[in-house]
Amino acid sequence: MALSISGGTVFAILLISRLLENSLLNAEMKEGEILPPTIQRLMKGYNKYLRPFFDNGPVTVGMSLDIASIDTISEINMDYTATIFLRQRWTDERLVFEGNKSLSLDGRLVELLWVPDTFIVDSKKSFLHDITVENRLIRIFPNGTVLYALRITTTVACNMDLTKYPMDKQTCTLQLESWGYNINDVMFYWTRGNESVSGLDTLQLAQYTVEDHYTSVSEAIYETGHYPKLVFHFELKRSILYFILETYVPSSLLVVLSWVSFWISLSSVPARICIGVTTVLTMTTLMMGARTSLPNANCFIKAIDVYLGICFSFIFGALIEYAVAHFCILSHADSHALLYGHHMHDFDDEMNGIVTTISSHSKRAKRRKEPAASPAPAPSSTELAVSPSSPSSSEPKPEASPPEHTNWCITVLVSLRKIIRSINCCHVENPHHIDNYSRLIFPLSFVMVNLLYWTYYLYF
């Protein structure tokens, strides 16, 4: 009984294996019907681990690109993300067959063929699209030429110079190199020169326009040898209209708004302080918002930072102007008080001098009348010599010191007044004229600075 069961099991296994062999043979026959007999024969002896012309010099690989899209260009990460169609052509003498038509094969057959080990040099992250199948194309021509195409999305580093941001131009590259084969094994070339790259003419970018693009061929030198390299250069120019509407116009209007205080009376302290502080705080908020979308790199002093700094300086200067004018008014009032006291002191001195003069004249008149009434005895010679000079010498003595003291006070007051005028009011007789000067100086200065700014960053 046991022997019969085991014999039946062995028979079933043999039957199943025979059926599988027949199905595999039928599949091979079907594949043989797709490929010509010559290609089938060559594929049987084909070794994908050996490059074409293994003993007869390097194999030349021609490349071309089709830029499908450039999705993002990031100034913060200094890179761009693009979707490209990479096409490579080379000739493999082992794949020559008779006929006049090319054969398009399934992309999954690439695992049976030798393909170049091309890679993107500055790629940060790349992937091959695989929906619904891997986006590969294999086409073999009768002379042994192989066309191999891929659809790749890659994020590539791009070193940017942001000193003129947002009026900058950036030149980015896409570099293709061979990873393992040096120039003795593989040579790269562009199939049609600068026309090998297409798709940029119809490309639409958010903030940039593609101004120019060109290709070049070079070699990458490493410690392990010299490797072939193809470089695609493209120049991007940033569109400034967005930044004009978003940053430049609001900041300029804030500067103009700060000038409104020049037409408000100096006595309206709350109104002028409110305008000055509000514009300063608003400008600070605008500057902080403009920096959020930019890289935090201290080595870059960008053009937009310079302009925002200029606007902030003018707004802050308008606030300081009111502080200076208000201080000059207070100093001007104090100087008027000092001058008023000085004039009053001079008036008192003058009145005292008039009274003293009148009293002296009255005394002299009395003395002249007294001799006429009762003549005095004749004075001696000594008295005659001294008496004429005694009235003139004795009377000015008490009056000599006050004029000297008065002259010294006047000199000090005049010097103090000059110092106050030179330091506080800058030789402005009326502090209210400071606003009149500011109404002209601030706008003219702002226009001149704008002319210099735009001329430098647009043409130099």
Descriptive overview:
By secondary structure, the chain is an alpha+beta fold. The chain has helices spanning 2-34, 37-44, 241-258, 269-291, 303-373, 381-386, 389-394, 397-424, 433-459, and strands at 59-74, 79-91, 103-105, 118-120, 123-128, 136-140, 145-157, 169-178, 186-190, 197-198, 208-222, 225-238. Helix 3 (241-258) packs antiparallel against helix 4 (269-291), helix 3 runs parallel beside helix 5 (303-373) and helix 5 runs antiparallel to helix 8 (397-424). The chain is rod-shaped. It starts with a helix and ends with a helix.
Top keywords for this entry?
8-stranded mixed sheet, alpha+beta, 460 residues, 4-stranded antiparallel sheet, 48% helix, rod-shaped, 12 strands, transmembrane helix
Give the CA-based shape: rod-shaped
How many β-strands, per DSSP?
Answer: 12
Kindly name the structural category.
Answer: alpha+beta
Rounded to the nearest angstrom, the radius of gyration is 50 Å
Report low-confidence residues grouped into runs of 5 or more. Answer: 1-5, 27-33, 338-345, 372-400
Helix content: 40-55%
| Assembly type | single chain
Report the span from N to C terminus.
102 Å
What is the number of helices?
Answer: 9
Describe the largest sheet.
8 strands, mixed
**Elements, N to C (H/E):** HHEEEEEEEEEEEEHHHHHHH
Strand content: 15-25%
- Nearest-integer average pLDDT: 80
